[in-house]
Amino acid sequence: MIEHIVFYSLSTxxxxxxxxxxxxxxxxxxxxxxxxxxxxxAGLFAALGADFxxxxxxxxxxxxxxxxxxxxxxxxxxxxxxxxxxxNEQWMAAILICVVSSAGLLKIAGAYRGTLALTVAKPGTHExxxxxxxxxxxxxxxxxxxxxxxLLGAxxxxxxxxxx
Amino acid sequence: MTLAxxxxxxxxxxLIGIFGALTRRNIIGILMSIELMxxxxxxxxxxxxRFLHPEGVAGTTLALFIMTVAAAEVVVGLALLLAIYRNxxxxxxxxxxxLKG
Lengths: 164, 101
Description:
The complex is a heterodimer of chains A (164) and B (101). Chain A is mostly helical. Chain A is built from 6 helices and no strands. In chain B, 76% of the residues lie in helices and 0% in strands. Chain B is built from 3 helices and no strands. Chains A and B meet through helix 1, helix 2, helix 3, helix 4 and helix 5 of A and helix 1, helix 2 and helix 3 of B.
């Protein structure tokens, strides 16, 4: 019973905040709702028993990416943006695309209607650490290379023309 | 709760993300919608791990990789965005027509 309450309240939170992200006129508001939606996804991870993913979601998305996006909204925003239309004139076609793809996606989801979790969720951090240092060592090292490249690229692209 | 519940939430989140990426005029709005789509994929991976493969953590590990790539993507995207904004003085994608013949 409590599982149902947790699941439905978290998914309502996630989906409502996501709708606000894509429809809000004020970009600052929609970036704040993005933070709320990502926090709700972290709650869903906790409900799924993915403890390390829950912590990483809070640290990387809610306190990293969402804050970074809020900062850039505030740097790039202008007072005149509040009076401009934030949605282009193709929204009818976009809704059509969403309806067509939802038919397929929900059909796939319906195929797993009877799949229940048979075991109790257990902590997985130890296992993740073993996997990173064992079978997945090469992807682990490659992803650190990607992060270093992203760091250098961000510094390079965000310098002003004068200091180059 | 069955796997279908979690997959439905992930599918709806993904569709909201697609709608936002297709319709937002502001380029930061598009980036935010892409983040929503990444999160929908992560929910699916965590749910598959819990329901279909409970004795391993491969899905969670893959979700962590996706999270890292998403973080790198946002950092580089926002840096590029700042550079473009400095040159074109606008954040609206229909004004980005430098490559138009």
